[in-house]
Amino acid sequence: MKRTIPDPNRLSVLLASVLLAYVLARLIDTGRPSLDWNILGVVFSIPFNLSAVTSLLAAGLAATGMDWLLRAHPNYERASSPEHWLLPALTAFAIGIPLYTLNGAGWWLTLGLGAVLLLLVFISEYIVLDVSDPRSPAASAGLAALSFAFFLVLTAALEYSNARLAFILLTVFPAAALVSLRAMHLRLERWQAQWALGIGLVCAQLAAALHYWPIAPAQYGLAILGPLYALTQWGIQQEEQTPLWRTSIENGLVLLVFWGAALFLRP
Question: Of 192, 219, 238, 255, which residue has the fewest beta carbons closer than 10 angstroms?
């Protein structure tokens, strides 16, 4: 009998391991050291502490754990596994950023909500491995929506934490590229690395331009999410040979909606 959901034992162990990493990082205080580089007379300082490192380790754990879950799937193929690592890794990383800045009940609420969303990502990635599964289209749509939602959370949390511009750029560029890459692959069933890199570069440039503006974190996140979503959909429609005028109008309106929402949230 084919297994249609991940092995419950593997799933619970993986989820508990990721969450335990965040809890342990919370309990251990390592201070706030920083890594400094002097490049052409300009000193770049990047905060370095256990909480920040935990987000990266949790992302790696989620990615490798996703592969571990997929190995129990009857349609598992080693060559097709890496594409299913991207969103779990991004999800685990995005959860860690707000946890780094919150305290008290807000921290536990974020951890619980993050656990539920991470669980949904693991299950959805398992389902979409089999394209003949009748739940696959819904799971693919859910994964795409979650990836954009996590990008919004990530960018807003970065702005809220007053992170340095260098750290923001090093985070936004790969995150935007990975979200775009995965969303386009879910829709087109082929890799579009050139689109993803270009979209990631645009989002990173916009993140740098807006970093010093006096706007709220939610506004900052929406202002960057708009171009990410619009450009990703524009790329998908271009690959599907949709007329350029229709693509431009539709995604131009989408961009205006996101930026209008950002203005509406003005404090």
Answer: 238
Q: How many CB atoms lie within 10 A of CB 23?
A: 14
Question: At CA 133, angle to CA 127 and CA 134, rounded to 5?
Answer: 115
Angle between helices 165-188 and 193-210 (to 10 degrees): 150
Q: Which residue has the tokens 């916009």?
A: 206
Amino acid at 138: A
Q: Closest by alpha carbon to 56, among 22, 30, 80, 26? A: 22
C-alpha closest to that of 50 among 32, 37, 73: 32
CA distances in angstroms from 56 to 53, 62, 118, 140, 160, listed in the order given: 5, 10, 15, 25, 19
Name every residue whose Cβ is closer than 8 Å to that of residue 160 and which is 6 or more positions away in sequence.
98, 101, 217
> What is the pTM (predicted TM-score) of this model?
0.80
Tens-place pLDDT, residues 103-132: 778 888 888 888 898 998 898 888 888 777
Average of pLDDT values for 20-37? 70
E strands in 23-88: 34-39, 42-47
Tell which residue, 94, 93, 88, has the closest CA to residue 68. Answer: 88
